[in-house]
Amino acid sequence: MSRQLRVAVIGAGPAGIYAADILTKSEGVDARVDILDRDPTPFGLIRYGVAPDHPRIKEIVKALKRVLSNPDIRFFGNVNYGSDLKLDHLQQFYDAVIFATGARADRDLDIPGIDLKGSFGAADFVYWYDGHPDAPREWPFEPHAESVAVLGVGNVGLDVARMLAKTADEQLVTEIPQNVYEGLKANAAKDIHVFARRGPAQVKFTPMELRELSHSPNVDVIVHPEGFELDEGSMDSIRASKSVKLVVDVLQNYLAKEPKGADHRIHIHFCQNPVEVLGEDGRVVGLRTEVTELDGTGNARGTGEFKDWPVQAVYRAVGYRSDNLAGIPFDNNTATVPNDGGRVIDIDGEPLPGAYVTGWIKRGPVGLIGHTKSDAAETIRLLLEDVDRLQPPANPDREDVDAYLAGCGIEFTTWEGWEKLDEHEIALGEAAGRARIKVVPRDEMVQISRS
Question: Where's the FAD/NAD(P)-binding domain (predicted)?
Fold first, then answer.
């Protein structure tokens, strides 16, 4: 007879859902998985971290839906680990707990002026335009901020640049809520300057993201020749990676292309390292960069030459940072949970019984969806190796979890509740001639889901 296993997954993004899927399909165990998330909805950064004009990336939701329709997997939304329950509570009901909470906060950028008015973190902006329930309803666009700087050349940086460059009316074909549409109409940006510390072969965005910059008829993409360097280290990267080669090819095409005279422009600058956000009367008036040069290995060094750029807002897109989780170790330097292949380890390097991690909380905010799936497989393999050593829970029945949450007064949502909200948002979109319109307020989402 196969071993019966009760597992909780904290986090309903791709990392957590993949872990649940792999576990319930594993041979030799009869696994039942509950996925808990602080959002009332599943899908994590696929819902709240992907730009709304990226329907192709959102196609992954279809695959995740198939996983969550598995009766061996349950979803509990609007349940906040750390305040609603902690590890010792979960251990009453589960053999093991897998933390897949991802990374939601902006990584710090320690340069002078970064805290000036008009300086923002990209994650905060993303959560606003994606309609996250905990984001403010309005975005503080400066009425005269026609020139804006974006610091960082990952996919998030390009998403931010594109959302700032496109008109509000162009976004009406997407699922943005009304408050985001009204906010984008107040955006005065005409020139968005994206700054890379190194050269074109060292950027972190994907070829698809880069090509999509030019899909708007209202946007010119201008790659500036200054700093467009390919040293020997860059050539090695191009030879070793098809993706890097494609990115450099697209950038070279932009470099050679004449602007069409669009009203909005995205400028890409290479070998410019931001060193200070310039301010006046407490608000952003410029950005100072140090010109860099490649050193032959693909890394950059400063030249001692500085340049000031007149911009009225700055968005830092230098990476995400995970939140500390109650009751388990946390490495503040890496913003990850210390682990050995997915097993959580304590300060002495010993495994914390029954505690595991997967996704960005395990390895940091790097890699694409494919990495997330293989990462989850590694964690599940270790969990299965540990099955005979796991402490069985005192209350293993599924109904015990429902009763506990209800007894705590937690208005949790379920997969069936998500299906109700999903239908409601689609109906809102159909009434406006759109595919979907997101509901934003948390209490409204919970009310619809629990109706």
Answer: 6-189
pLDDT digit string (tens) for 337-368? 999 999 999 989 999 999 999 999 999 988 77
Both tokens of 405, joined, read: 């949450």
Mean pLDDT of the chain: 95
Q: Which residues contact 426 (CB under 8 A, 6 or more apart)?
A: 435, 436
Measured CA to CA, the distance from residue 110 to residue 28 in angstroms comes to 50
Which tens digit of pLDDT belongs to each residue from 364-392? 988 777 779 999 999 999 999 999 999 99
Greatest Cα pair distance in the chain: 72
pTM, entire model: 0.94
Domain 5-104+322-412, what fold? Rossmann fold (3.40.50)
Q: Tell me the residue type at 318.
A: V
Which residue(s) pair with 229 in the sheet?
A: none
User: CATH 3.50.50.60 in the chain, residues?
Assistant: 108-320
Residues tagged in the binding site annotation: 15, 45, 197-198, 209, 360, 367-369
Helices and strands, number each (H, E), in the chain: 15, 18
Q: Which residue positions form the known binding site for FAD? A: 15, 45, 360, 367-369
Please give the order of strands across the beta sheet that includes 3-10: 73-76, 29-36, 3-10, 96-99, 351-357, 343-345, 339-340
CA distance 327 to 26: 28
- Residue ranges for the binding site for NADP(+)? 197-198, 209, 367
